[in-house]
């Protein structure tokens, strides 16, 4: 049963890759944790649709999928970008930016992140799926 769910999750995420995952259209209150700005926090719809009215708080560690490779961010499993960057910010449409040395890279997190039943999950053609967890953290 777990294998079927995981296979279905991978199929959903990989199919979302071609047209952008667009988690920001199904989630609200998007922010970064003030203590650990590599932690993305948001409220996502429980059924993963724009018509759902029930939300659940979710978190996702961006260090699991992002690396800083001057002058930009790259998707890399266990990339651990945060030691090289500070002053990170995200807006309500999931545009993510940080100050990394002399650079200020910008990345649209909608590209590979999706709301999957109230959790934020990542997948692209190189690796994934990697999913975050529910959380008590709030924006």
From TrEMBL:
Alphabetized UniProt keyword annotations: Signal
The keyword Signal is annotated on this UniProt entry: yes
InterPro entries for this protein: Cyanovirin-N, Cyanovirin-N_sf
Signal peptide: 1-21
Record flagged with keyword Cytoplasm: no
SUPFAM superfamilies in the cross-refs: Cyanovirin-N
Recorded coiled-coil stretches: none
Protein name, as recorded: Cyanovirin-N domain-containing protein
């Amino acid at each position: 049963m777990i294998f079927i769910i995981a296979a279905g999750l991978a199929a959903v995420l990989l199919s979302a890759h071609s047209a952008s995952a667009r988690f920001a259209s199904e989630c609200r209150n998007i922010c970064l944790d003030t203590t650990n700005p590599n932690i993305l926090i948001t409220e996502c719809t429980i059924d993963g649709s724009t018509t759902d009215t029930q939300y659940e708080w979710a978190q996702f560690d961006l260090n699991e999928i992002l690396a800083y490779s001057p002058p930009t961010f790259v998707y890399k499993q266990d990339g651990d970008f945060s030691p090289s960057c500070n002053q990170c910010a995200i807006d309500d449409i999931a545009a993510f930016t940080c100050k990394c040395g002399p650079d200020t890279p910008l990345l649209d997190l909608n590209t590979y992140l999706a709301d999957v039943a109230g959790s934020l999950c990542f997948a692209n053609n190189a690796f994934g799926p990697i999913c975050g967890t529910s959380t008590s953290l709030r924006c």
